[in-house]
Design brief:
- This is DUF6594 domain-containing protein.
- This protein is of the alpha+beta class.
- Among the domains are: 76 residues, no CATH class; 87 residues; 82 residues, no CATH class.
- It has a 5-stranded antiparallel sheet, with no helix packed on it.
- α2 packs antiparallel against α5.
- It is elongated and about 100 Å long.
- The chain starts with a strand and ends in a 5-residue tail after the last helix.
């Protein structure tokens, strides 16, 4: 091991220590920031004085270069590569948003078409066999078309015609099972949603920085968003998406050999969404009732009723995943409550005093 002393720019003095395996260490000192420790050959910087990490921002998440984990009992510079690296990054996602894979829609459709064509051929063979046996003078063959016991008995006695029919039936049964299973699996896959643009952009940013984590054809598997599927999709209402985009409490909660992503726990978003929803619901109930109570003008009351009803419908549509029918039903129920309150006040205000 040799030491190389040099003077860096901007007032840094540097000690360069070459190590085995092509790695090197540098100690830098500065009057303003104190000592720094840099692992050459790695994208990680750690300030010893403040134990802070250099941070670069990636939209929509911010991404921090990571100081490599050190284990005295293991290889000091050990890092996972390739498939192991990508698998680790996916596994460390607490909300499993990064479980994104190709669904191969075109291949799946082609496979179903192949199976369908095979069954069409087998169906045609069975139809031809039925017509041939029905015209045969052999009564046993004609009976085998209608009676399973006869077909089975002829098969067990070594009848060539019965063997051909039985083999065809077994082949159709196996192929039909394979076809139906493929249909059901494809129907389930079709229900899975595409990953959000926010998650996909972050995945691509990590995957391709500084170079693709996988080689060969695998390095392009994220290119076509229409053929990608997320195994775990989160709530997609406007409020949740807004909070995810501008959430101020992102923190580094997962480590990776290339980068550490500034993530947040989805439960924090869910809790914030629930609190905001409860507050809005309370305000939309207490606010109009209080306002309508103190307003004496009947026309103003009707105007307030219409405004609050529209605001309620807008809130339900924006902060929940309610379907159109559910929005109509909840808005009608909300309006009915306000109408009862307003009609009672109007009738009381217009009642003539008794003479």
């Amino acid at each position: 091991m040799s030491l190389e002393f040099c003077t860096a720019l901007f007032g840094y003095s540097s000690i360069h220590i070459p190590l085995l395996g092509g790695y090197s260490l540098s100690f830098q000192t500065s009057l303003s920031t104190g000592p720094h420790f840099i692992e050459r050959g790695f994208s990680s910087v750690t300030e010893l004085g403040g134990l802070q990490r250099y941070c670069s921002h990636l939209s929509p998440f911010y991404c921090r270069t990571m100081a490599r984990e050190r284990d005295s009992s293991a290889n000091f510079f050990h890092q996972k590569e390739g498939f192991a690296q990508v698998a680790r990054w996916i596994a460390l996602d607490p909300d499993k948003e990064t479980s994104i894979y190709r669904k191969f829609d075109e291949l799946a459709a082609r496979n179903l078409l192949y199976l369908q064509s095979e069954l069409l051929v087998l169906e045609n063979e069975l139809d031809q066999l039925d017509r041939s046996d029905a015209k045969s003078d052999d009564m046993n063959l004609a009976d085998a078309i209608m009676t399973w016991e006869t077909l089975e008995r002829q098969y067990n006695t070594g009848s060539e015609k019965a063997r051909v029919r039985m083999d065809l039936i077994v082949k159709i049964r196996a192929k039909l099972k394979e076809y139906h299973e493929a249909l059901l699996l494809q129907s389930e896959i079709a229900k899975l949603k595409q990953p959000s643009k926010r998650t996909l952009d972050t995945y691509r940013e990590w995957f391709n920085n500084p170079q693709p984590a996988l080689g060969g054809l695998s390095k392009t598997f994220l290119d076509d968003p229409d053929d990608l599927v997320g195994l775990h999709s989160l709530e997609t209402d406007y409020l949740s998406n807004f909070l995810r985009r501008y959430w101020p409490f992102k923190e580094e909660i997962s480590l990776d050999d290339r980068y550490s992503i500034g993530r947040y726990h989805e439960k924090s978003i869910s809790a914030a969404t629930a609190i905001i929803t409860i507050l809005i619901a309370a305000l939309l109930l207490v606010g109009p009732i209080t306002g309508l109570y103190f307003v004496a003008n009947n026309a103003a009351k009707l105007g307030m009723l219409a405004a609050f009803t529209a605001l309620f419908a807008l809130s339900v549509g924006l902060i929940t995943n309610a379907k159109r029918a559910e929005v109509f039903a909840s808005t009608a129920a909300y309006a009915a409550v306000l109408v009862v309150f307003v009609s009672g006040n109007i009738s009381n205000s217009t009642t003539l005093p008794a003479t």
